[in-house]
DNA sequence: CCGCGGGCCTGAGAGC
DNA sequence: TGCTCTCAGGCCCGCG
């Protein structure tokens, strides 16, 4: 379940070995990811230098010296693993230049930094795509994404405006990448808990509060930023597939207040019990007592 | 334009 | 032990 904090954690790990490095060799063991890789995928990458590795929403964007941008998405089960040259594999063995790929390692980058980067994705909901930089602004995958929640411009006024007139639930609205980019099921649940807002509340209702304009929206913005920052600091949440690029687990799953905690007492010790409901076919976790 | 639900895909875990 | 079933939730697309 890679959401913004997991993707950001991966970005930081990959940037160390990709930025300023060249693709010496690219192997596509399986091209049928969410969408098929282009036929010339490996050839278009080979010899190119990665100038910068950025993140937009849950997408990783590698700016290449050729003028192309490599767009990558982890889908549901994707992860990147980095092996550095000289790294110890098993007792007595070392990674030199060619390490056999393991199950579901669909794409491998051999970088001039000496790193072998493997993209592993059992469910193949992930994707990779090459787009000329000049076409990035009109790229359908990125066009229409909402603001970055950690950007300064993401404030109560903006969130209130984006939710205005929305007849859907607050849970669905925050999960909508067109309203805020990068949140998923886990962090929407956690942020709503921190803001003491019910996931069932109508999205349009956060814009106004009698006598205190945008107070709900303000609390929500504060909560979203705080939860995301804490999760990034913890290296993301490891439930099934998320790993840092060095293979270590994230730690934020230990910090969940509501996610996957149905039946457990509310951490606020208000006597409430965390409840699980289904919204839009997805699980929502919240405390009915303190989230109104 | 908006909101909802189906589909893609595999592994983990539950239940018999 | 081993089979079958359900569920996980990223995103796109089509329908009303």
Derived from helix and strand composition plus strand pairing, the structural class reads: alpha+beta
The CATH class of the largest domain, by name, is Alpha Beta
Beta percentage is 15-25%
- Low-confidence stretches are none
Keywords:
4-stranded antiparallel beta sheet; N-terminal domain of MutM-like DNA repair proteins; 10 strands; single chain; alpha+beta; DNA-binding; 2 domains; Helicase, Ruva Protein, domain 3; 292 residues
Give an account of the 3D structure.
- Helix 1 packs across helix 6.
- This protein is 22% helix and 21% strand.
- The chain has a 4-stranded antiparallel β-sheet with strand order 1-6-7-5. The protein has a 4-stranded antiparallel β-sheet with strand order 2-3-4-8.
- The chain folds into 2 domains: 135 residues, N-terminal domain of MutM-like DNA repair proteins, CATH 3.20.190.10; 131 residues, Helicase, Ruva Protein, domain 3, CATH 1.10.8.50.
- Strand 3 and strand 4 form a beta hairpin.
- It is of the alpha+beta class and 292 residues long.
- The mean pLDDT is 91.
- The chain binds a DNA duplex (16 and 16 nucleotides) through loops.
Précis, in short:
The chain is 22% helix and 21% strand.
Tell me the layout of helices and strands.
Elements: H1 4-18, E1 23-28, H2 41-45, E2 50-56, E3 59-64, E4 68-73, E5 79-84, E6 105-111, E7 115-120, E8 127-132, H3 156-163, H4 170-175, H5 185-194, H6 215-233, E9 275-279, E10 282-286
Antiparallel strand pairs: 1-6, 2-3, 3-4, 4-8, 5-7, 6-7, 9-10
This protein binds a DNA duplex (16 and 16 nucleotides) through loops.
């Amino acid at each position: 379940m890679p959401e913004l904090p997991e993707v950001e954690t991966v970005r930081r790990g990959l940037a160390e070995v990709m930025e300023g490095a060249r693709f010496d060799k690219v192997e596509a063991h399986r091209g049928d990811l969410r969408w098929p890789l282009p036929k010339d995928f490996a050839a278009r990458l080979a010899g190119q230098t990665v100038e910068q590795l950025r993140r937009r929403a849950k997408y990783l964007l590698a700016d290449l010296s050729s003028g192309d941008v490599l767009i990558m998405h982890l889908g549901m089960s994707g992860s990147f693993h980095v092996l550095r040259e000289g790294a110890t594999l098993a007792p007595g063995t070392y990674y030199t230049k060619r390490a056999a790929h393991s199950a579901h390692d669909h794409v491998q980058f051999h970088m001039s930094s000496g790193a072998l980067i493997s993209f592993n994705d059992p469910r193949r909901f992930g994707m990779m795509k090459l787009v000329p930089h000049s076409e990035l602004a009109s790229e359908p995958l990125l066009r229409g994404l909402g603001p970055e929640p950690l950007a300064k411009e993401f404030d109560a006024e903006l969130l209130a405006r984006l939710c205005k007139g929305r007849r859907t639930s607050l849970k669905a609205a925050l999960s909508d990448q067109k309203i805020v980019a990068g949140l998923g099921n886990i962090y929407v649940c956690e942020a709503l808990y921190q803001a003491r807002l019910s996931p069932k509340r109508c999205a349009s209702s956060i814009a106004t509060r009698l006598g205190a304009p945008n107070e709900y929206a303000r609390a929500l913005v504060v909560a979203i930023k705080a939860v995301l920052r804490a999760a990034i600091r913890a290296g993301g949440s490891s439930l099934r597939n998320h790993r840092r690029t060095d293979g270590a687990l994230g730690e934020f799953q230990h910090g969940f207040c509501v996610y996957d905690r149905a039946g457990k007492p509310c951490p606020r010790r208000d006597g409430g019990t965390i409840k699980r409901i289904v919204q839009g076919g997805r699980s929502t976790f919240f405390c009915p007592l303190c989230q109104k």
